[in-house]
């Protein structure tokens, strides 16, 4: 692990991480937007969710460094390019074949047909809209830019028709069964595309105790937070734009319904929310990193927020190199799987950001240090990596220590990991003063 001997050396190294993160993100910029990974990797295309989390994480990094004018300027332009790219690819019509809907933010756009995914993938002119979360994140990002970035209000005014279209989608399509919660309900008529239309989008990311995936609709815990935050953060923008009182009241009502629905997720014996609800609105008892996104959205009241924060830092989730996607005591745990036990740097950065916002700086720094130590060993903003528990290793014995390992199909240069390391470095620099 990286050890810093002198404060000046530590500061210089952290500043270097910030610079490297910017350089990696600049390399991923294209005329059609920020690509999720490098040309040598799997996802060299515009992905809505990846762009938005990259924007949100670098915005947070800039907020932690208020005197760094160069960083603020770069972040403002980076955010503007990201939002404009997603506005340009926003859904405009109803098309079940690629799950497009008016106002919906794209899941992925492959501008070059030669790079389209192999096999039958539900693209229409290179576009697929199979994500529920991206539209809410677009609204949060627009509101954050409006509040934080110099010139952000003018940018949001330019994009205002797209913001309103996204809000209309969020109000119209997110709650598929009118119970106040946001659900995933794929619409592709041939069953192509993604079953899990959230960031943990592999088909086996969410499993029942019998090993089968739940049937839709599924209410993922983080979706409730994203929607709640989007509706809450949009109110000042709408008020400034002179929106009708009926729309403002509807947003208040949606926030209240979401808050009232959150107790359905609570696992009393685990002192944290479950990963998701089944179609019958029963908690699927998996302890996962998703709850950290709910904290980031400031969606939980006390004492539930504090209990959730403490749960994330227990040893079944927290490793020497960051927080796992799934508890090692969960029935579905597999440290080699894509989303059921690996460690994702961007996921950890969101949790570290949430803890910092809660005033839990020392806990946030635990995650940020471990994240940077892992990425220093890879010397690259890798998509994800494995941390193997000692009981998964036969020889050589590790003395009870967990082992950092490569996830062989991980992208080597991933945009939101570059943004994550910038956030981690900014936290450590802020703490150092």
TrEMBL record:
One of its GO terms (biological process) is carbohydrate metabolic process. It comes from Thermogemmatispora aurantia. It comes from the Bacteria. Residues 140-374 form the Mannosylglycerate hydrolase MGH1-like glycoside hydrolase domain. Signal peptide: none annotated. This is Mannosylglycerate hydrolase MGH1-like glycoside hydrolase domain-containing protein. It holds the Pfam family MGH1-like_GH.
